Amino acid sequence: MTEDTMVTPDDAEHGASEAETGAPSHEDALRERDEEIASLKDRLLRAAAETENVRRRLEREKVDASSYAMTGFARDLLGVADNLRRAIAALPADAPGFEAVKTGIEATEREMTSVLARHGIARVVTDGAKLDPNRHQAMLEVDSEHHEPGAIVAELQAGYTIKDRLLRPAMVSVAKAKADAA
User: Is the dihedral of CA 95, 97, 99, 104 positive or negative?
Assistant: First the structure.
């Protein structure tokens, strides 16, 4: 060491500074440790928060997976429900002997609707509703004296939701805007 950087007993007694001695003071070392501790605490809190977010997301995904696991199966069943409705509509209203068949098909349709409802599957409302592109699919526009433009005139195929998600949109016809008479 040279004389310029050498610490003398006089310097140590009078608290020579780091610049004068070339070595960090205790205060500087403590300050660095405090900054490091604060940084580590911050990283620990961020890691804990991230872990909690991952846990919550996984829990939510688990609930969604169990709630919506039967979506594919439910879509397949909707075709059966549609065919039951078509069978009822196709039966002649006044033909003898068909009343028992019609009653049986209607009972089957009611039971299917009940089973779907128990599993959170509900029919999309179309009666008297305005077209909602999130729940309805407009298949055609029709002239209507009794409906305002954009109102659903008829349901062509029923739509369904499973809990709060759309399973299948309702296919509907919609009243068209009246053309201005020129």
Answer: negative
Q: What domain range is 148 assigned to? A: 71-175
Among 11, 42, 67, give the residue marking a domain's end. 67
Give ∠ CA 174-178-179 in degrees, rounded to 5. Answer: 130
Most confident option among 4-18, 33-47, 124-138, 163-177 = 33-47
Both 77 and 28 in one domain: the answer is no
Q: Mind giving me the DSSP string for 18-59?
A: HHHHSS--HHHHHHHHHHHHHHHHHHHHHHHHHHHHHHHHHH
Could you give the dihedral angle defined by the CA atoms of residues 142, 145, 149 and 155, in that order, rounded to the nearest 10 degrees?
-50
Cα–Cα–Cα angle for 118, 109, 99, rounded to 5 degrees: 150
* Dihedrals phi, psi of 178, to nearest 5 degrees: -70, 135
AA identity, residue 37? I
Q: Using one digit for the tens of pLDDT, what is the confidence trace for 142-160? A: 988 888 888 999 999 999 9
Rounded distance, CA 143 to CA 129, Å? 17
pLDDT value, residue 163: 85
pTM for this prediction: 0.61
* 67 Cβ contact partners less than 8 Å away, ≥ 6 residues apart: 120, 162, 163
